[in-house]
Amino acid sequence: MHINNPDQPLILASSSIYRKSLLKRLGLAFNSDSPNIDESRLKDESPTNYVTRLSLAKAKKVAERRTDSLIIASDQCCILNGIINGKPGNHDAAVKQLQASSGNKASFLTGLCVLDATTGNYLIDAIPFHAHFRDLTLSEIDRYLLQEQPYQCAGSFMVEGLGITLLKKLEGDDPTALIGLPLIRLSEMLREFAVKLP
Question: Which of 34, 52, 85, 166 has a Cα-to-Cα distance from 115 of 20 to 30 A?
């Protein structure tokens, strides 16, 4: 177990309203700080290495400013047919992603890091979750995208919103991993750092 100060500030290295909402479920006081790092994938980088590298990089970036804190960071990618799908960024790219996902299984891999800025000690993991898409028509895809506009979401959909209507099955140990902050694994990590949870 990593021994830390029980009064140590907890920082979420993210500006995501979805990750903030998830972390609030643990009933812990925390602040958030956006890391603003380059999220480009390295050449031939595996999905696991990609999300864990970015999670650690985000935590370290925030730790530079929050030197007394315990930092939580995560990053997610979507893997479809062995290819990483990132954030689409715009409508046309999102249409292509969802057309490729139609009738297929998309795997979402979420990197998770908890870093003690005072010692440099950290825990890191990658948590998988799978979404099985039903067969989607182009009009369904267009209608969904225009309503939800998930252009900054890996895989072009948000399961916490209307994205659930695109699916026929979810598969995995922790549904919060799909939203981008796996609370089951995070709780285990926080306990390792002696954070008191219910």
Answer: 85
Using CA atoms, how far apart are residues 144 and 158, in angstroms rounded to an integer? 10
42-95 confidence digits (pLDDT tens): 888 999 999 999 999 999 999 999 999 999 999 999 999 888 888 899 999 999
CA 167 → CA 39, 103, 161, distances in Å?
28, 9, 12
Residue 24 structure tokens: 């609030």
Concerning whether 75 is annotated as a catalytic residue, the answer is: yes
**Which tokens hold the place of 73?**
């960071």
DSSP H helical ranges for 68-137: 91-101
Please state, in angstroms and rounded to a whole number, the distance separating the CA atoms of residues 104 and 167: 10
Distance CA 83, CA 25 (A): 33
* Alpha helical stretches, state H, the chain: 17-24, 47-65, 91-101, 138-148, 176-179, 183-192
Q: Is 117:67 a contact under the CB 8 Å cutoff?
A: yes
Which residues neighbour 188 within 8 Å (Cβ) at sequence distance 6 or greater?
A: none
Q: Which residues, including other chains, have CB under 8 Å from residue 36's CB and lie 6 or more apart? A: 61
Question: Tell me, what DSSP letter sits at residue 173?
Answer: S
- Catalytic hit among 75, 116, 125, 174: 75
Q: CA-CA distance, 34 to 36, in Å (whole number)? A: 6
The model's pTM is 0.90
